[in-house]
Amino acid sequence: MRLSTKGRYAVTAMMDLAIHEPKGPVTLADISHCQSISLSYLEQLFSKLRRQNLVRGVRGPGGGYQLARPASEITIALIIAAVDEKVDSTCGGERSCEGDAPCLTHELWCGLSKRIYNFLDSISLEDFLNRPSVQEVIRRQDLASDRSAGIHTLTVN
Q1: Which residue ranges form the domains of the chain, and what is each CATH number?
Q2: Which residue in 69, 99, 98, 63 sits closest to 82, CA to CA?
Q3: What is the DSSP letter of 157?
Q4: pTM for this structure?
Q5: Which of 79, 83, 97, 146 lies 20 to 30 Å from 69, alpha-carbon distance?
Q6: Over 77-110, what HEC string results?
Q7: What is the mean pLDDT of each run of 10 residues along the chain (157 residues)?
Q8: DSSP string, 22-74
Q9: End-to-end distance of the chain based on CA atoms, in angstroms?
């Protein structure tokens, strides 16, 4: 099973928003630069994230995007689902492995898909941001960019 760039980039961009939430809206250009994600690709992803009420746009000077909900309420599974990504390890979907019937190992792959979904649904942006290894990446990225104005210890509310 492989998660496509759509899901990975959406999670990365949402993490970037959550990291910089205390400082206000973040532009897609900023996320594009810091996370090395194409601006046009981010625009497509944020259109879907906005429709699912995970982000909201702020217009005008100092505008950009913000989380539409607290980081504690946004799970990784919600983000992936919002961009139409399926975390599916099955051999052919619900029951279409061998025509209309499941194949010999279908139950195994369905079980794996459920575990992956439950794992991703158990982790909020806030949970992930508070991991020490993630905090180290945040410090490294902030030092390498012009966004290093004091975000070194993160407390997300």
Answers
A1: 5-86+126-144 (1.10.10.10)
A2: 69
A3: -
A4: 0.83
A5: 146
A6: HHHHHHCCCCCCCCCCCCCCCECCECCCCHHHHH
A7: 82 95 92 94 96 94 93 96 79 67 85 91 95 89 68 42
A8: GG--B-HHHHHHHHT--HHHHHHHHHHHHHTTSEEEE-STT-EEEESS-GGG-
A9: 33
